[in-house]
Amino acid sequence: MDSAPTLTDDLVTLRAHREDDVQGCFEQCQDPVSQEWTTVPVPYSMENARSFVTEVMPQGWAAGTSWGFAVEVDGRYAGTVELRDEGEGRLEVAYGSHPWVRGTGSMERAVRLLVDWAFDDRAARVVIWRANTGNWASRKLAWRLGFTIEGTIRAALPQRGELRDAWVGTLLPTDTREPKGRWLDVPVLEADGLRLRSWRDSDAPRIVEACTDPRTRQWLPLLPDPYGEAEARSWLEAQLESRATGRSACWAVVDPADEARVLASISYFDYTPEIECEIGFWSHPDARGRGVATRAMREVVRYTFEDLGVRRVSAAAAVDNAASRHVIEANGLTTWGTERLGIDVHAGRADLAWYDLLVEEWRRLGR
Length: 367
Ligand SMILES: CC(C)(COP(=O)(O)OP(=O)(O)OC[C@H]1O[C@@H](n2cnc3c(N)ncnc32)[C@H](O)[C@@H]1OP(=O)(O)O)[C@@H](O)C(=O)NCCC(=O)NCCS
What we know:
CATH superfamily of the largest domain: Gcn5-related N-acetyltransferase (GNAT)
Number of domains: 2
Strand content: 25-35%
Largest sheet: 8 strands, mixed
Strand order of the largest sheet: 1-2-3-4-5-6-8-7
Bound molecules: coenzyme A
Number of helices: 11
CATH architecture of the largest domain: 3-Layer(aba) Sandwich
Low-confidence stretches: none
Structural class: alpha+beta
Mean pLDDT: 97
CATH topology of the largest domain: Aminopeptidase
């Protein structure tokens, strides 16, 4: 086959590139997101776009080395998807969308058509996805299509003279084209005058203040030291990884009237679906003593029982950490034991008080 067939699911069409795609391609490659995550030349000229559409794409088909399609939605150019031959039935998938179509689900449909074609018509034995680490939009799309995210390969993808770390995923013909594992949401929750929202990069300074505070460090001594904005950003990135792999989710607690000023952090972790999870929290030093953590925890306890459907919620605090134990006890959790020398605190190793609450007990509390 030396030119692209037309594939469609009625809403999205994949077809051969045409001369009138040049303008759309040019616009797509001016977009900072495309420049950040792909190898398009920067700056990108109209001549680059013309050569891509009229030479690079058709040449791939003619040589049998790559198979690129233009994506069309509502009669408009919406991006490009491509398979690249890696030999022995291994095909690498690549995709990029024009900004106008992002967030509509169209690219998922486009890549689904492409992957089906790879297995059904090109007899692919595996489709491989690679992305620079941190490209969460791409990873979510790969996850939606059923790719198994295998891990990270350091210095794997050249980009404008640098070697970037890459995530790698695979899809086999026998895999279902559905997500493997959960990707945890962080919905906005209202908690008795407080709002729980997802974290933002701009929260880094407040995180630094909280995590360098002596009282925080007294009870959480394993925080990096020194702790600066780079550490805060790594923590936020690690949260995305934990959500994407179904392990934990974390909220920033704010006053709805001042969403930019984080008051506390609250998370659930060690999550086993339908069974249990643990809840943890810290408060910013200037937000302590006002019941912020208690109210936030009440809402997360409700969320984990009612919306996530766990049967048991647990929490733990160093025996001498009176404030933390108060928050846990105010939420109806009861202690079931002490793990001797169970936690690192600033002064060394300390006993750890464990608490839990079952869903039936929580219902009886009528919260
Ligand atoms: C990858 C791409 C095709 C996906 O398009 P899309 O499916 O329409 O999706 P969006 O760009 O709207 O984002 C997809 C999801 O990722 C999430 N996402 C985006 N950026 C994110 C970030 N920095 N952190 C966490 N999640 C992020 C979005 O919230 C969205 O999630 P939702 O659908 O559950 O709301 C498109 O983002 C793109 O063209 N990017 C530039 C080119 C590129 O990166 N290609 C892949 C190279 S491997």
